[in-house]
Amino acid sequence: LVVHxxxxxxxxLANYLLEQAAYEPKRRTVNYSNDARRSxxxxxxxxxxxxxxxxxxxxxxxxLMLGIDATVYSAKGIHxxxxxxxxxxxxxxxxxxxxxxxxxxxxxxxxxLTTERATGSYKEFLRASLLPLRMPILIDAAIVVLYxxxxxxxxxxxxxxxxxxxxxxxxxxxxxASFTSPKMVKGGILSFSAKTSYLYxxxxxxxxxxxxxxxxxxxxxxxxxxxxALSLFAMVAVLQEYKHYKYKLFETLYKTE
Length: 257
Hints:
Blueprint: H1 2-23, H2 34-47, H3 49-76, H4 80-83, H5 94-99, H6 104-107, H7 109-118, H8 122-151, H9 156-180, H10 198-210, H11 223-240, H12 242-253
């Protein structure tokens, strides 16, 4: 009797769950598990030849500049960064954005098309646009952490705070640029054709420059939340107007296909 009652209960429970599943509205979503997201981020970095070449070139140049500063510091006890303020630009993640991620859909147009066909949701676009950024940012951050750990302890707090703020500012700017000013990527790494928007590269440099203001006075760290908030607000505004940009995106990215 107990077995029969248990079987009946299981049957009724299964029937209830099936009915609930049947009534649940169907949604087309792009679901990324943590493992899948990590794997896709690595494959996007590894398999796109031009993006990988540009990123490795930019990261290599960054290592060169920081290496020169480290060499001078080891030999003379001074930093080139203190003598030439423009070299601070190499401490932040600027090259990643100006080389590739201010035009993420130009480099990864199939990722954009897949997301558009699956959902067209601006939240999914936000997740998808950050996937290719993950691996380069990890590499770039590792370079900066090693530089700070071995050659620039004195300014460690400023560098790490500036770097974190730069990611929070430049990532929204890169997403905005990718939607509002897309460029079809063509030619090789040595091609003279622009791979990203000159306007947004200038805006990225300008905003990153604002993050160096605390070098003048610690009170100027108060600039950080303002710049971050403005960047995030602008990104949300653009994402909510995605429908106005998607046709331009398609025409730009697939105009010769």
